[in-house]
Specification:
This protein is an all-alpha fold and about 210 residues long. The protein has helices at about 5-15, 20-25, 25-45, 50-60, 65-85, 85-110, 110-125, 165-175, 195, 200-205, 210.
Amino acid sequence: MAQHNTLEVCRVDLFTVQDELEKRYPAVIVAAVLRIREEYNWFIANPDAKDRQFVEYATSRHGISRTLAYNDLGVIKALLPHLAQASRDFHRYRYNEMIIETYQMAKKRKDTKTMEKAASSYAKFNRVDLEDEQAVPYDLIVVQPFTATDDPSVLGIKPIPRLQERIQELLHKYQAENMDIEDIEFEEADLEEQTLFPDEEKNDGADPEEDIL
């Protein structure tokens, strides 16, 4: 059985309904996702809480060890940037959850009017009255053919007459003219500075103002 990383599963399915989770993952992973989902809701509702307070809540609420509670906290903190971007999905999940709960309560009271309103709201919000979008038929997409060319006329540029012949002529010409050139190694230049600049040593340490006077 494939191993599942809790953090990676939560990145994708933190707000997926329980029935779908149970179809995709082992029971231990489903339990972890549901627990972290509830802890995340508490974390958002208590933004000023310290890590210690979160751990105390998680151990008391879910009966888990402090080590696992700290591990859950690490998962939630890692998810925060991702969940901030997916806040709309979170609110969708919360809305559906409330509508379903309203429907179930109305059903127990046999309140058909409220049941109808809840069902209508659920259908409208989730756009179940619309047909599913047609999947793009990627297998029918024709790849645009491209052919490499050195002809500039395809860009609207007038080509140079006999270009390749001219290139070959120039290559032969300059290769023939430079046949006597030899590569030599680098040698340090001997400038004979003492001979070329005999007065520099005498002027070392002299007052520039005296030279001017």
